[in-house]
Amino acid sequence: MGVCGCGKSTIGTLLAKKTRGIFKDGDIFHPKKNVQKMSSGIPLNDKDREDWLNAICKSITSHTGTWPLFFGCSALKRQYRELLTSETKGSDIHFIHLKGDREIISERMQKREGHFMKSQMIESQFEDLEDLEKGEKGFSVLINNSPEQICAEIIAHI
């Protein structure tokens, strides 16, 4: 989990490779209207995210393939994380918050090409971001290190 540009896809893909698991990018579950909205530089609201989060939840609960399953999803608010875990029927879901400051994220977004999420939308993501709270399953990892180092830290933790 984390704001756009924090490395969810990069780290998720690498974690899946290192653990012989699976990575799914939550972006592929966005309805077309969400992609169009973000492509126009308009941030999503809670209602916009509802169908997207439900589709991710359904993908998790219906997954019958290899485990572990790593999912790249912003999961910015606690209510989104609660929705993602609401239908999991005992699945052991943990959130790994890839945490970086605005400066690092902004720099990464400036270099990013071909993605529908526009760099000017970073601020709205940081405004919506709620850190993991006591009682939520998960932990935070700073993104200041290389992807290899970040994955090593995550694997040591899990």
Protein architecture, described:
There is one protein chain. This protein is mainly alpha-helical. The protein has one domain (8-157): 3-Layer(aba) Sandwich (Rossmann fold), CATH 3.40.50.300. Helix content is 46%, strand content 11%. The protein has seven helices and four strands. A two-stranded parallel sheet has the order 1-2. Strands 3-4 form a two-stranded parallel sheet. The two termini are 15 Å apart. 27% of the residues are buried.
The CATH architecture: 3-Layer(aba) Sandwich
Radius of gyration: 15 Å
The largest sheet, given as strand count, sense and whether it forms a barrel, is: 2 strands, parallel
Question: Beta-strand percentage?
Answer: 5-15%
CATH superfamily: P-loop containing nucleotide triphosphate hydrolases
Helix content: 40-55%
- The H/E string reads HEHHEHEHHEH
Q: Tell me the structural class.
A: mainly alpha
CATH class: Alpha Beta
Could you give a quick summary of the protein structure above?
It contains seven helices and four strands. The protein has about 160 residues and is mostly helical.
Overview features:
7 helices, 46% helix, single chain, Rossmann fold, mainly alpha
Q: Secondary-structure map with pairings?
A:
Blueprint lengths: L7 H12 L2 E4 L6 H8 L6 H16 L7 E4 L5 H9 L8 E5 L2 H10 L10 H7 L9 E5 L4 H11 L1
Parallel strand pairs: 1-2, 3-4
Helix pairs in contact: 1-7, 3-4
